[in-house]
Amino acid sequence: MKFISIAQKDFKELIRDRRGLAMILLFPMFFMLVFGFAFGGMGQNNQPNMIAVVNYDTGATLPGTGEQVNFGNNLTKVLEDSTYPDSDVNLFNVTKTTETDADKKIKTRDVDAELIIPPNFSQSVVALITSTIQQQTTINPPSNVTSTLIIRGDTSYIGFGVSQGILTGVLGQYQDKLMSEIRNAFTGSPGVEADTYLQTRVESIPGTGSFTTFDFMAPGMIVFAILLLTTTVAAALTREVEKGTLSRLKLSKMTSFDLLFGGLIPWSLIAAAQVIILLTVAVLIGFHWQGGLYTLLLAILVGIIGGVASISLGMIIAAFARNDRQAANLGTLISVPTSFLVGAFFPLPQVVIANFWGQPFQVYDLLPWTHILNALRSTLTFGGGWDTIAYQVGWAVLLTIILFIIGVGLFSKNRLRAEN
């Protein structure tokens, strides 16, 4: 039976092509792991919602006792201690910070929402207590005793919608519990409406009122395109080895650095062109580009850095690939999952491993493209200038230099010196 012989032949070819077989088997596995990690919670049903709390409350004096209280601190503690029903998982992962930093964390998706507690929050609670004691029913109280809690975030982001809904519910429960305790303390007093003194307002951070999900995803598509340079560069370098081009170039006393650093120039220009072309297409189909020409120039600079990182990764792959086909397969196997791991298509859960200069450093931040993506979003989506991306660019440059040194070293050792 000839078909058995053919089957045996094809099976042996599959086994011999170990890298191709790994591509077939591992590629779907990477996608399953990434999507499971992002959306499945790694086996956990409930996940804390990331919120920032900005507490401006200056405190107040309780009537009768003269005790100094700060209900802003009390509310923050309630948020920190709140858990899911029948669970020990916290509802919120609370970051206490400033308003400027909270807005920045909203833009980089480090938090889903921020709660701003006004300076007169405690005064409003004390006024509520006093009115309950005196059984006042003032409909329009003085403005200086009416406080408004502000829930702020990117209203186009699904994470904000979820966190805002849960946060509103918890604030409502806090208000109800507060009124219940006041009424229990002063038996027979009907009290007053808490809304007269305590109010809540939802608002978007500046510049995000008309944003869509695509406005957050467009920079991710640019990073994805930059990462795909890895496949092209790896295949091109491997092809140069196969054709013997490197052997001829070495006769001119060319060094490994000359070859690889010289290759950065055209490929970096390709990365810059990708930023311009994809941004143009994105704007044409509805991307709300912020900041004008200045942010475009910053984005091009950031794109070039990302391109160099992708070229460096391509060098590493080319150092081990046997031919251009294997190089292309390996490049795809590595670059596509990497684009998911850096958050190009959807935000990933926080996995903080350290803090540098007051900034959380996550496991994804070990990849330069994570910082490239954050910088592109900061400047193109939110219109930020150099001061808003300097931290991300600094990390991207450092990690890219390390990746380039590794790429040059491996390619030189495995491809150039091997031909001597």
TrEMBL record:
<feature type="domain" description="ABC transmembrane type-2">
    <location>
        <begin position="168"/>
        <end position="414"/>
    </location>
</feature>
<feature type="transmembrane region" description="Helical">
    <location>
        <begin position="216"/>
        <end position="238"/>
    </location>
</feature>
<feature type="transmembrane region" description="Helical">
    <location>
        <begin position="259"/>
        <end position="287"/>
    </location>
</feature>
<dbReference type="Pfam" id="PF12698">
    <property type="entry name" value="ABC2_membrane_3"/>
</dbReference>
<keyword id="KW-0812">Transmembrane</keyword>
<keyword id="KW-0813">Transport</keyword>
<keyword id="KW-1133">Transmembrane helix</keyword>
<dbReference type="InterPro" id="IPR051449">
    <property type="entry name" value="ABC-2_transporter_component"/>
</dbReference>
<feature type="transmembrane region" description="Helical">
    <location>
        <begin position="333"/>
        <end position="357"/>
    </location>
</feature>
<dbReference type="GO" id="GO:0140359">
    <property type="term" value="F:ABC-type transporter activity"/>
</dbReference>
<dbReference type="InterPro" id="IPR047817">
    <property type="entry name" value="ABC2_TM_bact-type"/>
</dbReference>
<feature type="transmembrane region" description="Helical">
    <location>
        <begin position="293"/>
        <end position="321"/>
    </location>
</feature>
<keyword id="KW-0472">Membrane</keyword>
<comment type="similarity">
    <text>Belongs to the ABC-2 integral membrane protein family.</text>
</comment>
<protein>
    <submittedName>
        <fullName>ABC transporter</fullName>
    </submittedName>
</protein>
<feature type="transmembrane region" description="Helical">
    <location>
        <begin position="389"/>
        <end position="411"/>
    </location>
</feature>
<dbReference type="InterPro" id="IPR000412">
    <property type="entry name" value="ABC_2_transport"/>
</dbReference>
<feature type="transmembrane region" description="Helical">
    <location>
        <begin position="21"/>
        <end position="42"/>
    </location>
</feature>
<dbReference type="GO" id="GO:0043190">
    <property type="term" value="C:ATP-binding cassette (ABC) transporter complex"/>
</dbReference>
<keyword id="KW-1003">Cell membrane</keyword>
<dbReference type="InterPro" id="IPR013525">
    <property type="entry name" value="ABC2_TM"/>
</dbReference>
